[in-house]
Amino acid sequence: MAAGSHAAEYRRGPAPAWVRPQPLDEQAKPPLGKGSQGTHYLLVDQQTRLDGSERSTYRRVASRALNLRGVESESHQSIEFDPSYETLTLHTLNVHRDGRIQDRLASAQIKVLQRESDLESRVYDGSKTVDIVLDDIRPGDVVDYAYSRSGNNPVFGGRAFGRMDLQWSVPVHAMHHRLLAPSDRTIQWLASPAAPPLLEERQGAWTERVWQATGIDPIPQQNDTPRWFDPYASVSWSEFADWADVARWAEPLYAAQAPAAGPLRAEIDRIAASARSPEQRLLATLAFVQSQIRYLGVEVGPGSHAPRPPETVLARRYGDCKDKVLLAVTMLRALGVQADPALVHTRLRGHVGDRLPSPGAFNHVILRAQLGDRAVWVDPTRYLQQGRIDHIAQADFGRALLLDGRSTALEPMPAAASTGHPHDIAMVIDASRGFDKAPTLDITSTYQGEKADEMRDTLRNDSLADLQANYLNFYLRSYPGLSVAKPFSFEDDEAGNRLVTHEHYRMATLVTEEADSPRPPAYLRVPDIRSLLGRPDDTVRSAPLRIDHPKDVTVSLTALLPGRWALKTEHTEVSDPAFEFSADSGVDTTQRTLLMKYHYRSLDDHVPPARLAAYIAHLEEARDQVGYRLDPPKPGAKPTTEGRIGVMACLLAALLVAILWALSSEVTHDNRLAETGPPQAPLPNWRLLAVGTVLSWGPWLMCGVVAVAIWAFDKHFGMSTVLLASCMLILAAWLRHQWSAEWRAWSARRTNDAARLGRIAGWLRVPELPASP
Q: What is the pTM of this model?
């Protein structure tokens, strides 16, 4: 949003008398190969003066346009200021060309625009921009402009703090930064390691601190750096002595007063009547502020750091983080729940302690509630959080300055169990009919804690159709030909802060054709884990590499295979200071189901440059374990142990059938001859008993051998296996009965010692014994 203004919202005038002019070296040559981006900065001069409650900052920038790209940049200048407490004065706007200086301040097109750069984030700060457009700028021209801003935000009570940038992403020929303040004012300063040395000089009642340098090399920006990382040289300064000093400054701003009769008091009474325990009152208050007060920040002047009265916020039904926190703290204290505001930084997080103590070290406010011995950190600016206190995601910004009247230092914010980010994914691939017979893929994702809140917010803002399309496109990269089998669905357990989504797909095939493979393999891929183990784009770095943290993902994959596969059980672990990874794979007892499980958990939010090579090596080691390749058995391949057992069982069964058939045929034939032929000679009892034992127990042994063969070749015991076993048992019983009768008649005729034969047959449990004489 931009609105032009023709009113005199800025001044024109000479530079203040306290400014120390700096020389401009127009003969300086632009450095080659250092990324000037079409502009050579000859001078960057910033001087700040503190006088009572006033703060004035003078800034001068002179730069040369090297080419048309530089001309585009130099023809347009912008200066921001806050008109609620600052006065902007333009001093000079000159163009140096061919040894002459052209004053362009009168001829330039100057407009005052109100650009709310943070309006998309629903923050209105009231700042304005003086927009300057210059005509007739040519390559080789030097644009030299200077201005000053005077004023100090009254919310800071006359104390000041600030930062001076001493290095940029482009080269600068000369830099001069100066801080001028009364000698009796105590000022702390903190310089980064690459900052030039401090030059300090006392001049009567004033003390001057100067940082200056020439030939300042640029630092190119690298991708994927942590948000807290700042590679550029700088100096910070502050009149706040320590974190306790900052806390004492902020506490009066958040003083919670007992609400008088009115809408706020009525809302407090409503919660008190419906919620009895401190936990219930905390959850009810949090739900009210999160759902009934929309987020909108009006941070003009003192509103940048001072919250508005809770009654005003409730009446307007909007507010920023400061407003929402003070409203919630006021309600909770009136409900008997101890609650205190806490200052945090959403980008610096745990690194906020690396900054000088000042109000500028923070950009967000949350609150801490005390439930007995338990501290609970909550953020009223989040979207509605529901469920029990043990399940809602607590705020975690690393370190916080608690405004409880006692804090003297930053306090660590322990990541409670409910603040975790577990994400469990269960993948089921059904390829039981064949790898190329339209396998199906079902995915069940379970989100808990903050991940459940994030997914819930996604479901509120995006349509299910859009989500389905996004997920389909994600999995298509791993499984070409994938299509949706059933619509995307979800189940939400708000009380347990647990959300489950369901996806159903069908595949064209799992087989991947490979030029050098006559028998193409089937691939089982796990993209959700593999995407976490991707190799960084920039592997030669001087800056740390950012890692998505915290991250806790578990993926289990169950694959129903078209046949039995002899696969080994494997377990792999990869440990790195930045993450931990484990992989397990194996098959169930039927050897028809492949089971895989992967777990990835981040341990830090960055990798230092010195550790990058080891980190990448560990990534590749872990990535090599993700997924499975199933190669079809090769012709003539060596059989497995089970296969060898099956073959041996089949051979033994065939041998048994041959023996039983031969013996039963001999006994039956002998009995038929005895009916018409002459008397037959007696046979030894051992031979009779051997034949009887084989004919009596052979059918059962044959059943056992056949069962072993079935087990070896097909471990899947279904209804067909049960029917086959039943038929075999019936057949074995019938054969045993028939053969035993034949043996009884045969042995009765051919024995010469029936009594002894009967006794020994009894020991051998041979049925249908011959009768004793």
A: 0.79
